[in-house]
Amino acid sequence: MTQYQQLIKNLEYLKLNELLVHLPQELDLIVSNNKTFVEGLLTLTNKEIEKREKSMIYSMVRTGAFPHTKTLDEFEFSFQPEINELQIREFTNHKFIELNENIVFLGSPGVGKTHLATSIGISVAKKRMQTYFIKCHDLIQQLKKAQLENRLTDRIKHFTKYRLLIIDEMGYLPISKEDSKLFFRLIDKRYENKSTIITTNINFSKWSEVFQDPVIANAIVDRLLHHAHVITINGDSYRTKHLFETGGNT
């Protein structure tokens, strides 16, 4: 076996696949004196790192359970002129994450709350910070199931570990008084420790109706809003806009 063949086997064993792909080209440049050995090795290792970084980012985004991979560039800010685009884009600098702040998107169905929340969440995941997206109803169902199986504490720890937790469509479905207590325990655990994004169509003054307990509702609002950015969207529905554009055909 030649030294080159042994090198190939070593790279395969180490699973340096990207380095393997570009090795012949870089060797040619080194042999022809168009690159030094160090320059060639630097190029190869940079390509390997870039490939692994992309793979890590893809994995983080995939495990975030996002409903789509839309970005802020795909959001029609011109259709929702009341939204401060600069403020939204500043969230992708992730300072709110560093400060353990929350974001609440409040508005009628179809105005783009989930799109904005997801886009911000994906930007966080791409920075290799643990992020998770879940519908409020699904979250509560998981907590209820865990309680019945005597593993509620572990489940709350699971949802507390995420640097950013996105809870979508809070208030769209009724929440019983007992379920409200479970939701409060999670919010309380994350309070001032991690960041949470909430999307809801319910004004804060009516959260007591959603949670069917004014005391619990006030406690949840207090913790969510203590360090929070509230984005109220009063625009029209994108779904209605699409319906008009297609002439009412779906």
TrEMBL record:
Domain AAA+ ATPase: 99-232
Transmembrane portions of the chain: none
SMART domains (alphabetical): AAA
InterPro entries linked: AAA+_ATPase (IPR003593), DNAC/IstB-like (IPR028350), IstB (IPR047661), IstB_ATP-bd (IPR002611), P-loop_NTPase (IPR027417)
A GO biological process held by the record: DNA replication
Matching CDD domains: AAA
Listed GO MF terms: ATP binding
Pfam families assigned: IstB_IS21
Keywords on record: ATP-binding, Nucleotide-binding
Alphabetical list of NCBIfam families matching this protein: IS21_help_AAA (NF038214)
Protein family per UniProt: Belongs to the IS21/IS1162 putative ATP-binding protein family.
Record's protein name: DNA replication protein dnaC
Species this protein is from: Haploplasma axanthum
